[in-house]
Each structure stands twice: as C-alpha cells, then as structure tokens.
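Entry for 5-bromo-uridine-5'-monophosphate complex. Fields follow.
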Amino acid sequence: YDPKSSSYVDRSKRHSNGAAKALLEVMDRKKSNLCVSVDVAQKQSFLTIIDTVGPYVCLIKTHVDIIEDFDDQLLAELKALSERHDFLIFEDRKFADIGNTVKLQYAKGVHKIANWAHIVNAHPVPGPSIVEGLASVGLPLGRGLLLLAEMSTKDNLATGEYTTRAVQMARQRPDFVIGFIAQRRMETIGSHDTSHGEDFLILTPGVGLDVQGDGMGQQYRTPKHVITEAGCDVIIVGRGIYGNGDDVDAIRKQAQRYQADGWKAYLDRLSK
Ligand code: 5BU
C-alpha cells in the first residue's frame, strides 16, 4: 500500500479519526489540497481573507494568538465561515510542554482552542506524554493531532533521529495522531514495513510559487515539488496568497491559482 498513489477519497476510508476522515473528504469534494495560513493581526482582515479564500481551500490555518482584537465573536464568525465555505480549521499552536500544561492550553485560557479547532499540532520534544495530555481533551471531541516531524526553515533541528522518533510517537496513538507537519512522506521512516497500510496526512508549509524565501529563514518550494515529487498531501500557503496587500480580488486570484496548481500536482502524482 502506498498513500502516494491512492486518491484522497480512498484514503479517507483508512482513517478512523473523524478529523482526518473529514479533511480527506472535503479535499475530494472541493478538489482542493490548499490550506491557507491566515497570519494577520486584525480581526477584520483575518475574517475578510478567510471569506475570500474560503471557496478554494480544504483547511484554514490560524495563529489565533496573533490577533490583537481577538474576541469570542471572532470565533463565532470563523465557525460560520467554516460551515458556509466547507473547510476545516487548524490552529497552528505548536504545543510543546508537559501533558498537564498542554491539556490546559488546549482546553482553557482565552482561546479555548479545543472548542473550535478540528486539528492542532505539537512538537514531539516532550515525548509521548504530550500526545496523552492533548488526547485527553481532543479525542472525546473528535479532534486530530499533527506532530511536527520536520520544519521548513533553514538549519532547523528537526532532522534525522528526531524525525524518526516523532514518527514512532505517532504510531503509538493512531487514533489521535493523524499525521505530520513535514516536508515529505513519513510512512517508510524507521525501517517500517509499509505493507500493512499505514497512512499519514502530510501537511507542508513553506510553499510559494513566486519567491524562494522571506529573508527570515523561511524556504519555499512549489506545489509540484511538494505534492508530486515529495508526495505530501496538503500545501500550506500564507503570504503567497495575501502578501501583496489586501485587495480582495488579488487575494481571490492567488487562492484560485494555488488551488489549481496544487490539484494539478496531485493528479500528476496519481497518474504516475
Ligand atoms: P508563509 O507566509 O507561507 O511563509 O507562512 C507559513 C506558515 O506556516 C506560518 O504560519 C508559519 O508559522 C507556518 N510554518 C512554517 O512556515 N514552517 C514550519 O516548518 C512550520 C510552520 Br512547523
């Protein structure tokens, strides 16, 4: 079994986790493997971008702690947009603490992330206890977790044995860990036998069609490189979509462009 040569909809049947299933199904339904990362500081701008790109994405990625005028109304509007445009929500919280602390950070505080984010992510650095802490909150709500197995930045430390250990951690909790933030497929890592049908979702940041970096360590690859060649599943695009100002027509055009490019890269991979 090779997830790289299977369709998103067929793969949805292999996942027991509700968030993983729902994501693969929406990808198939909307013909989109595009996740837009909405990294802006004002609520109005945040909601306008999401309303504009909503029809073209499978997933919206947030950093809700960036927003200066955050309030509960924003969450109500985000939820409404997710229903209107049919996308899931991924809060890129990158939990990284002991089980008890991440449990509190996930469920409580101002943001109450578990109430509205279908998917969150965590650094594997604390070991398996971080997954246990998050699962205690997320599993009863049908949520899914991604582990950060690799990063897109220049000279990052998530390589080699660290990446292997992240994959081993995921294998211990397939009910809750639905995949990885990574730059390539992970099933073959750790000299694992893939014949029993392991399937991870691979979500990949550091995607851009026009520039190679941002002068602050970010490194960009194209959808063709990420989806067709590296075999990842979802392209995460931020400034490539809204980085040239807040003209909604320009933002819509970019979202359509990345959706089309990402989907073509997926079809090319399937026909290989
Ligand atoms: P960009 O504007 O497309 O560069 O935004 C990329 C987003 O993905 C941004 O929100 C980062 O926090 C996030 N990201 C990343 O760029 N690279 C990584 O390795 C990880 C997350 Br993990």
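NOTE: The first strand starts at residue 34 and ends at 38.
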